[in-house]
Design goal:
It contains seven helices and eight strands; from the N terminus they run ααββαβββαββααβα. It is an alpha+beta fold and 223 residues long.
Amino acid sequence: MGWTMRLATAALILSLTMMVTTDEEENDRCVYEALPDTDAVICKGLEVFYPELGNIGCMFVPDCRNYRLKITYWPAPAVKFPRALEDATYILVMVDPDAPSRSNPQAQFWRHWLVTDIKGIDLKKGKILGRELSAYQPPKPPSQTGFHRYQFFVYLQGEKSISLLPEENRTRASWKMDRFLNRYDLNEPEASTQFITENYQDSPNFQALGGRSSEPKERPKQK
């Protein structure tokens, strides 16, 4: 009878442990949601890799594991164009067309990153080694402004010498991207993609935690 009770107790403990583990796995599961067709039209051959996330091109940043917070202080992503010509030179542009919001984009385009003189052999490997005209600025959509698109475009530079005008250097907001492209005869991009995210405080998971994040208060400083 003693052994029977012990076996029953052990079986009960094992069952409870499995239930707790299963619940934790369910809560920790990340859903990678692809962009709708209307937003996926610019997803053409470009890959964007962030730490932990992997390639986030043509996806929503998942609302789990604090990714929507982490992406606001992670360093610049690896941007990879597998079909880049090794002996060619490229320009990389990253913009937010939804500043301050998608419904009211008065500050379109917000220039997040602009790099010229990128060698094709590096771009094929995801290495953005060139001349930064605008240093990388992480995506930080303001609270209560909904989802923002973060778009990446790669253009063939050729022998052109690219620069920003003094007035363009004064601010990143309201950048006339079309004028910049026309000034240097940059037509269709060779590759492009985008991802979408919102302020982490507006995320359903953050709200479900009562406005608390599991991230530590100390975060790496921006450089």
